[in-house]
Amino acid sequence: MLDWIFDGIVGWVSSVVTKLMDAVSGLFLGALGTDMTAMEEYFPFVSKAFTIIQFTAWTLLFLITIWKMFRAFGGPITEAENPLTLLMRAVVFALLIGFAKPVFLYVLKIARAPYTALMDVTMGAEDFTFAGIESVLRSGLISVAAGTSIVGSLLVIILMIALGWNYFKLLLEVVERYVVVGVLCYTSPLAYALGASKDTSQVFRSWCRMVGSQLLLLVMNVWFLRAFNSSVGQYLGSGGALSNGHGSVFLWLFCALAFLKVAQRFDSYLASIGLNVAQTGAGLGMEMLVASRVIMGGLGGFRSAGSVFRGGGGGPIGATGGIAGFAGKFTDRFKGNSYIRDAVVQGGVRMGAGGPLGFIGRAFGGLAAKNGATLNGDSISSVANRAPNQSGGIAGNIADRSLGNYLPNLKGKSLSGTQITGGKIATTATGADGRTSSISLYNASQFEKPNSPHSVLTASDGSQWYQMASGNGASDFFGTPNFTGATSEAAQVSAMFPSAEEGTSLRTVGDGVLEASGASGNSLWYSGAYFDEPEAPHTVMQDSDGVDWYAMTPNAESPAFEVGEAAGEYNCAQFKQFMPGYEQDISTVNFSSSQDGHFEVRHDDGSGTAFYDATRYETPRGDYRTYEDASGSQWYAIQGEPAVERRPVYEDGKPVYDGENVRTVQTETVRYRLTPNKFGEPHSRSNRENYVPKRK
């Protein structure tokens, strides 16, 4: 029974250590290099303050030079330097202060050659992942601890932690050595300020030796890290065996640990031979503390861990529970990355074990969370699907980078300010174009259906969520269905829009815009997620995701009038058939604006009537009548009085003048007291707050 418990613990600890080692392996050498890019971008202040350091160095150089020249007045008793030599050296070092950074960068270029050469060496053994170390260690320890698998499991844990801890310490050394070089670069003017005088030149020479020593360490970083990586790759392939038939798991492991120790202490070795190097890195106290806590926690936590496997009534699992009950409780409590979840959730119910074992697990989980680990869908579900008073909450960077594991539509999105609590999720998404969207999601089992535009999402655990979005990028979260207008898409149209008229075909013509064709005519449908509700006549339809669509009422069609003087009687007859409710006799029809839903008829007495399509024009403000055409469409009719206008005379497109005045002619026309306004196109949806739906 305990063997299986330790197998689970070993698997979890090994996965945490190896994933952390894989996450950081290979990132440092390429990112740091032998230039100051990382130093300037991570610490922009040092670049801005470099000019102040230069002026400080010039001031210091000036004070030292003045003091030394003042001592020259003391004659032989002061052992002063030659004033002329002092002045010339001061000028030279003043120029060096002005060109301190270019000089240092040129020295870095010299170190770049061996650094790049070591980086370019091809080693097939480096193509590996640290995740294989645990399995090779376990198989190598079978022969050593065949009779006591618990001892083997403890050895695997201790060895994995020791290897991972020393690897991270070496990476810390690598970064510290790079930072030391950066500090030397951006404070180099102060070193040049001490070079003009014989009394202070020793400091300048020591600084030069330190620069050379640190650049050597910078190059050796590549040598040590690549050598260790190749050793791990070789070990995974050979299991620690040597070509002479000797070698073992323990020999390789001790050699690997010793190599990491030597790499960490290489600066002290260089210092012992006379090179001026900065002593970086921490002592072994922290390592011993961590190892002791892990061992003591593992030994002391057995009793606490045993409580995980007790039955529902509090007693131990016996014959009634059986192995099946034990296994069920084990898998229920030890879910994937549950310790990381416990480390970041404030409040709520724990998923991992309690006692010292749980404390150590959550400590490692917190470390993993700070170093880029993510929560899986099960861990997020354990918070999001619970009641608010039991869930606790997940927030911060780990919530931003983990939410996509629970809600697939947010995978790969740039999220910020994420808050995950019981039944509710809130986050802000930023698109590649810089537009932002405030996203609010509500669990369908805990909240009623919202009244505002929303879509329905399915999470990784199968739960349903209402998604609402606001902001200038909200339309990105309400996709437009892709229809081509083909009759073969009838089933898809019916599934997407259950209330659509039978026989309706759809064609996508833009973001949030569909063109509908059916028995009642053609019209455009606008998504409520993209557009505000239009003022023109329309009906509101909902798609299968719950998003409102504004189906515009099809425009009225005017009669097919003909052009020409001989067509006057024909057009009048067409109008009579088209508008049977209009009883007044007409003499002519003016249909020049019929494409805009407007035409005019004239009467024998010179008056007229203007007709406007009610689907395209607002209700007139004044006297008007409404007529219905033969197809059932509504038209606004506005009466006009006969009038006479003087209009300019044109020839060849130019006005004709009588002297200084434009020649005019009297023309009979119709004057209308009002003209209705035409409906505008629907406006893109304005920014609105997300309205919180009611809880069930």
Short description:
The chain contains 22 helices and 21 strands. Helix 9 (149-186) packs antiparallel against helix 14 (285-306) and helix 16 (338-344) packs across helix 17.
What does this protein structure show overall?
Helices cover 45% and strands 17% of the residues. The chain contains 22 helices and 21 strands.
Task: Report the helical percentage.
Answer: 40-55%
**What portion of residues belong to β-strands?**
15-25%
Distance between the termini: 45 Å
Give average pLDDT, whole number. Answer: 78
How many DSSP helices?
A: 22
Unreliable residue runs:
145-149, 282-336
CA radius of gyration: 41 Å
- Secondary-structure-based class equals alpha+beta
Overall form: elongated
How many β-strands, per DSSP?
A: 21
Q: Which sequence of strands runs across the widest sheet?
A: 1-2-3-4-6-5
The profile of the biggest β sheet is: 6 strands, antiparallel
